[in-house]
Amino acid sequence: MFQLDIVTLFPEIFNLTLNKGVIGRAIKNDLIEIREWNPRDFTKDKHKTVDARPYGGGPGMVMMYEPVCAAINKAKEKHKNSKVIFLTPQGKQLNQAAVVEFSKLDGMILVCGRYEGIDERIIESKIDEEWSIGDYVLSGGEFATLVLIDSVCRLLPGVLGGKNSANEDSFVDGLFDYPHYTRPEEINGRLVPNVLKSGDHEEIRRWRLKHALGKTWRARPDLIESIKLNDEQKMLLQEYIEEFENL
Ligand code: ADE
Question: What was the pLDDT predicted at 79?
Fold first, then answer.
């Protein structure tokens, strides 16, 4: 069973969202276990203080060392092998390759920050890795944690229905997914490409690869630059570019 421990001031966010859909079913089927730890429950003062003003001044508040670390320690008691991850815009940027690596772990302890941040000494002494979901700022780590949980859990054995569902995803080979079509055949003059109705599996594979390459090239030329295309991929992309430029 994959262990997820979430350290958060807002556990309700997770109860509402994770009990649904693919992840909800995985929890019911005992493929993953999710527990939440609220630093507020680990405070010792009567006001249950979790944040304080930053040394050096400046706006906002900083999450305090003691309650956050006590929550992490509690999560670790049962799951010593879990990796402790802090979600922060100052982390390495998440991508599908990293998600695949996370899915091979025993579990993760996910620390969500709020306010201006968390005391740096929590990061120094308790956090194994810092990860960001992109170059923009959220008001807390909770939604980033949900993104990480969703992307990792759907790769765990037994979580997705079809055996190959995850293998055919976008980014598995560093490219976008190919375009999908279903009934009806015509919508306001827009037709399903003939090749997809031909039953010719090799032609369908080539068409899908070509359009996966083309979509990636149009939106993310940097991704195309970063992967080494094989001869077939180079040829199909060239074909796509020529057709695109003659449109
Ligand atoms: N917390 C706030 N913004 C974030 C981001 N972009 N990624 C991860 N955690 C965050």
Answer: 93
